[in-house]
Amino acid sequence: MKPISIKDSWIGLDESGKGDYFGPLVVAGVQVDTELSARLTAWGVKDSKRLSDKRILDLEPMIRQACPHSIVAIGPERYNELYAKIQNLNKLLAWAHARTLENLLSERASPRAIADQFGDERFIKNALLEKGRQIALEQRPQAEEDPAVAAASILARAEFLKRLKRLSEEHQMDLPKGASDRVREAAVRLVRETSAEALKKVAKWHFKTTQQVLEASRPR
Q1: What is the mean predicted confidence (pLDDT) over 176-186?
Q2: What tens digit of pLDDT does each residue of 27-64 get?
Q3: SS (H, E, C) the chain
């Protein structure tokens, strides 16, 4: 990892798994300077939603090696515990963004950070700790257009994909991405073959999908 210019640097933050019923919520932070930003663009780094899973997994080690970064992954069980306490997805997201930023700033300084805007912009600022409060935090729509944020989206999605694969292997069944009919069918099968409690270990319980799955799983 080549040393970067701290004065000329900024941090990009993004998350993955927010809309996926199965799997964790992951937030990543990536620090770049002007030179690194140009290199990421040359590699084809862009919003992970515009890339295939294969391309995401190909780019991930390149970004990890080139850029200072931090990743906070909240597995389904922990996610469900936190949501039960916080009762607000945007506040939970803000907490994870703040932890990611604080972890990265504990290793190296940076004057500013950029994150996608979700909910009240005070959510992240209120969740920041000492180091995070000392930098300029910009929250804006479509922040993934910035190379640092795009790189963070790739690291977050790659971590999500790897953890979802491990959950699928542990439960010996395919746990699909998203929140589609296929996802509901997999969840119903899991409940019927195991229990509703098992669902809490792999899924985000507060999704409306849960009630649909539990109703469909009841004996007829």
Answers
A1: 96
A2: 999 999 999 999 999 999 999 999 999 999 999 999 99
A3: CCCCCCCCCEEEEEEECCCCCECCEEEEEEEECHHHHHHHHHHCCCCHHHCCHHHHHHHHHHHHHHCCEEEEEECHHHHHHHHHHHCCHHHHHHHHHHHHHHHHHCCCCCCEEEEECCCCCHHHHHHCCCCHHHCEEEEECCHHHCHHHHHHHHHHHHHHHHHHHHHHHHCCCCCCCCCCHHHHHHHHHHHHHCCHHHHHCCECCCCHHHHHHHHHHCCC
